[in-house]
Design brief:
Strand content of chain A: under 5%
Shape of chain A: elongated
Structural class of chain B: mainly alpha
Largest interface: A-B, 90 and 92 residues
Largest sheet of chain A: 2 strands, antiparallel
Order of helices and strands of chain A: HHHHHHHHHHHEHEH
Number of strands of chain A: 2
Helix content of chain A: 55-70%
Number of domains of chain B: 2
Number of helices of chain B: 25
Radius of gyration of chain A: 26 Å
Largest sheet of chain B: 4 strands, parallel
Radius of gyration of chain B: 23 Å
Shape of chain B: globular
Distance between the termini of chain B: 46 Å
Oligomer: heterodimer
Strand content of chain B: under 5%
Chain lengths: 312, 531
């Protein structure tokens, strides 16, 4: 039984990365190139970003070197991820509920990374009862307390808002409630495990240590074990749902919303356009492929459906 | 109004699903009345699927029997499958898929949408309403995901769903203000365009103004206005003559000058409806000493590309012809005149649908004009523009291309009483005529533009001029986009706002010419000053 528990742990971690990889791969493979569909402000435009300007404001911009301020993109992504800036600006009522929910998750995710390094340090010989470990343990305790409370309060508030707001209720499906409530359950189990165990950090570090060293020792705290089981499920579940935005947001922002690279600056894209134009098109409307024969995009683009029909 | 509208109603409601109650439409500081909806006739109800709201754009024939109903649904599903293949939709697939998969249903987009707000927050006009129907159909009937009904919500799919979804795609200005507010990067405006595309490219269903009278007409005779090369050259000759007299400066608009630096690409609608715009461009370019030309080759005297509103094939075909005309003339760049969607289609979208070797660099006229004005090549007297001026930001040029400041710097320099609208620049609202609405006619579309889609713009305008509303002060609405001007003209005329508020509207070039010291004074005409 204990071995199964650890196997589930491995599967969860592997499952998360596999699912995330597949989602990203699917996105990248879904098209060799997409049209420019940028939306301003684009944050790598330097001083122009403040008012939403672009390189296209410059006379003969194609004769000038391309200038991108990558730090602008990094700053915008961090602002969005850390503070949920767009929600704050455009949907404050939602932000006060979803921000604690997200911060709670960040705390637990950050805490997990710290625990991972603590377990590695232990493997490398650091005394688990030493001063640094105790210090780290206190930080983790605080993080888990604050994080689980944030998830519980945020999660319940989000459920209530979905029920109370007439507009949101129409669009909320059973899965939306399930997703939120499973997180609340995860938080509640974490909180009661934290409260019931002498040291949550000790439990977590030991589990991580065992996971890394393939030591399938039984869990001593049932609540913590249940907390972890829910966590395993969430790891696999998140990439399978709209919550996959945790990693796909990079692409929706960076590649689409800010994807403004002109073709004259990219020989790679020049080739990609040529490749894409060779795809066969099967649209049925008469003005696309009226004769029913397969055509490439090149054929389509160079056809004039309004040209006089040839006599037989 | 059906105020408890549910998503599933799209497949179950009988007859017209929703009617917008005129009492729900917000009032404005200016006297902009609502226009009563004209009821559909019995004949229309019998023959046409006018089953969404008070408007009917697509005029889908009413299926006569079960077989025709099924045929519509099956064709739709076939099209939807194609929409999700890279061969058929490499242009937009990544954006489409992410918008389908990652929406958290937070509805942050609703408040950003002027249609939702100005319809009195009617559920049907939420940007997410149509998107969510489309997503549910995809997950349940095309992708057939396990537990789709539980996970994504159930939706009935029948001919009514299809017909209503097609119409719903034409209750969006494609301004993408909703996408700008999405915390995740979901683009509900794109979904509206993808639905339009599916209908056009698979089912052959489109508004006649965009297709038959639009892109097809343009490919047939050279312009969506119906003007052939001979007619356009003749008309421009007349414009040159008329405005030589009006301005006191000899104007000569060149055509087909081989090797010129610039090929200017107007929206041909200007030639017919706003000749002063053509004349103003010619005058400014001429006085600035530019090497430039218009093209009389079919299509290259009309920057219009309605394909961008509904059909990728038509978009690419027209953009290619524009590029080819410039290539043939051997110009260094195309300068796109005051037409927003022409900017977006040719500069940004065409950048990745036309092989690079066929491309000619494209520049916005705002940028070219900025260079002319700021370099001091024209003698300008700002006191000639000594009336309040506000600036409309065409979505296609500003939010979707990031060209924000050049036009502002010009206006600041030549119009001392310039004031911004609330929510300007990239936060701007659509004029209400965007995505092809400005050219549509029939079936309450005019009422819809006046009652709902154009209302937020008039709120912005009235706020900008709130200190000087009324007939005493002349005021200029600078709207440097053909479609936007058409929409603004209509609203002003219908509400008699020229007289009541002494408004004039027009482009940026007219404002520049009005300030040119060697031009006869009074190029811009206000109420009561018409000749």
């Amino acid at each position: 039984m204990s071995t199964l528990f650890y196997i589930l742990g491995y599967l969860a971690v592997a499952g998360f990365f596999c699912m995330a990889y597949l989602k990203i791969k699917s996105y990248l493979a879904s098209s060799p190139l997409h049209v420019r569909w940028e939306l301003y402000p684009v944050p790598h435009e330097g001083s122009k970003t403040v008012y939403g300007g672009s390189f296209m404001e410059e006379k003969d911009w194609w004769t000038k070197p391309r200038h991108i301020e990558h730090m602008g993109d990094v700053k915008a992504l961090l602002t969005e991820v850390l503070f949920l800036h767009a929600t704050f600006e455009h949907n404050l009522k939602l932000w006060v509920r979803t921000y604690p929910f997200h911060v709670g998750m960040y705390m637990l995710m950050g805490g997990t990374i710290v625990v991972l390094f603590s377990a590695i340090a232990q493997i490398l010989g650091m005394n688990p009862q030493g001063g640094l470990m105790i210090f780290v343990g206190n930080i983790i305790s605080a993080c888990v307390l604050a994080g689980t409370l944030c998830i519980i309060v945020g999660g319940i508030s989000l459920v209530m808002r979905r029920r109370a707001d007439e507009g949101l209720r129409r669009y909320s499906t059973p899965e939306h409630y399930f997703n939120l409530l499973i997180f609340v359950l995860f938080g509640v189990l974490g909180l009661v495990a934290w409260a019931s165990a002498p040291s949550y950090f000790e439990l977590a570090r030991t589990f991580m240590y065992n996971l890394i060293t393939f030591n399938f020792a039984p869990q001593t705290n049932v609540l913590f074990a249940m907390h972890l089981l829910v966590g395993f499920f969430l790891l696999i579940w998140i990439p399978m749902t709209h919550m996959g935005h945790v990693f796909m947001k990079y692409f929706t922002y960076h590649d689409i919303r800010w994807g403004d690279e002109p073709t004259n600056y990219s020989t790679k894209n020049q080739q990609k356009i040529m490749d894409a134009l060779k795809f066969n098109v099967t649209w049925s409307a008469e003005h696309i492929a009226g004769d029913g024969q397969p055509k490439t995009w090149v054929d389509v683009a160079t056809t004039n459906p309004a040209a006089p029909k040839k006599e037989d | 109004m059906k105020d408890n509208l549910q998503l599933k109603d799209v497949s179950t409601a009988e007859g017209q699903m929703v009617s917008i109650d005129l009492k729900d439409i917000p009032e404005l500081p200016v006297d902009m009345h609502t226009m009563p909806w004209k009821p559909f006739t019995d004949e229309q109800k019998q023959n046409t699927a006018c089953i969404l709201d008070d408007v009917c754009v697509l005029n889908i024939p009413m299926p006569k029997n079960k077989e025709e109903e099924e045929e519509l649904v099956n064709k739709f599903l076939n099209g939807m499958r194609k929409l999700f293949t890279k061969e058929n939709n490499w242009t937009f697939l990544p954006m489409l898929e992410t918008s389908m998969d990652y929406c958290a249903q937070c509805n942050s987009c609703s408040e950003a949408c002027h249609l939702y707000e100005m319809s009195g927050r009617n559920e049907m006009y939420r940007p997410n309403f149509r998107s969510e129907i489309f997503r549910r159909i995809y997950k349940q009937y095309v992708k057939k995901e396990p537990l789709a009904k539980w996970r994504y919500g159930d939706i009935g799919l029948n001919w009514k769903t299809v017909a209503r979804l097609g119409e719903l795609a034409y209750r969006c200005n494609l301004c993408r203000r909703c996408a700008q507010t999405c915390p995740i990067g979901v683009d509900n405006a794109l979904l509206a365009r993808e639905i339009r595309k599916l209908f056009s490219q698979e089912l052959g269903i489109y508004p006649r103004e965009l297709h038959e009278k639009g892109t097809i007409n343009q490919m047939k005779c050279g312009s969506s206005t119906g003007m052939t090369p001979e007619v356009v050259k003749e008309n421009v000759e007349f414009i040159d003559e008329d405005y030589t007299e009006i301005t006191g400066i000899g104007i000569h608009t060149p055509f087909d000058v081989q090797g010129a630096d610039i090929m200017l690409l107007h929206n041909a609608g200007e030639v017919m409806a706003w000749p002063e715009n053509i004349a103003a461009f010619s005058l400014i370019f001429q006085e600035a000493g530019l090497s430039w030309t218009l093209s009389s080759k079919a299509l290259a005297y009309d920057g219009v590309n309605y394909g961008v509103f509904y059909d990728d094939a038509q978009t690419a075909r027209i953009a290619l012809q524009h590029m080819m005309a410039a290539k043939e003339l051997g110009v260094k760049k195309i300068v796109i005149g005051e037409c927003g969607h022409a900017h977006k289609a040719l500069t940004v979208i065409a950048d990745r649908v036309i092989p690079f070797e066929y491309q000619v660099p494209r520049e916005s006229c705002y940028v070219t004009l900025h260079d002319i004005v700021m370099s001091g090549r024209l003698k300008l007297d700002p006191s000639r523009n000594n009336f309040p001026v506000t600036l409309h930001d065409p979505c296609n040029i500003v939010r979707l291309m990031g060209i924000v400041e050049p036009q502002r710097e010009i206006v600041r320099k030549i119009a001392p009483l310039f004031r911004e609208m609330p929510c300007h620049g990239v936060d701007n609202y659509c004029c209400g005529g965007g995505s092809g609405f400005a050219i549509m006619t029939r079936n309450n579309i005019e009422q819809w533009r006046g009652n709902i889609s154009g209302r937020k713009k008039m709120w912005q305008i009235s706020e900008a001029f709130k200190d000087c509303l009324g007939p005493e002060t002349r005021k200029y609405i600078c709207a440097p986009c053909s479609n936007c001007k058409g929409q603004i003209r209509e609203v002003l005329e219908h509400n008699d706002l020229y007289t009541k508020n002494n408004f004039a509207y027009g482009g940026l070039v007219e404002l520049i010419v009005n300030a040119m010291v060697n031009v006869n004074p009074g190029f811009i005409k206000f109420e009561g000053e018409e000749e």
